[in-house]
Here is the input.
Amino acid sequence: MTRYIIGAILLLLGSFLLIGCPPKQTPPPPPGPMPQPRPPAAMTPAMPSTTVTATLTEYKIVLTPSTVPAGDVTFQIMNHGKMLHALEIEGQGIKTQRSKDLKPGGTDTLVVKTLKAGKYTVDCPIANHEKLGMTTTLTVTPPAAGMTKGISGAPGEKGAATKPAGK
Ligand SMILES: [Cu+2]
Here is the structure.
């Protein structure tokens, strides 16, 4: 009888011990080097962004430069005239984009995204200013393989120049 009881107690103790001492869990991982945080994606130089200064006067638009590589173009527009002017660009199937109306001395910035190569008309949409001469052409050149710095002067593109009609 007592043996039986002792045996039961031992069993109980045994199971307590088992529960109290659970098998060791896998140890925490040793403090190794932290995983490197991913660096921010490098800016893709695929599409260059060019800034063109557009000066508006009566009745003229001057673009500097007037030839840019394909990509985004930011127009820094300044009204140096004495009347209200604005700037709009159209061509190559793009949606016509237009700056604010600028009072004399006013400035605005117009960003035109991803212009393809080709010719674009830049004019003043106010009243009949375009007819009076406020129109010019922005030439966008295809992205060159080895893009050179300095965009002034389209290299060797004189083919379309009108021949002097002197006889
Ligand atoms: Cu105008």
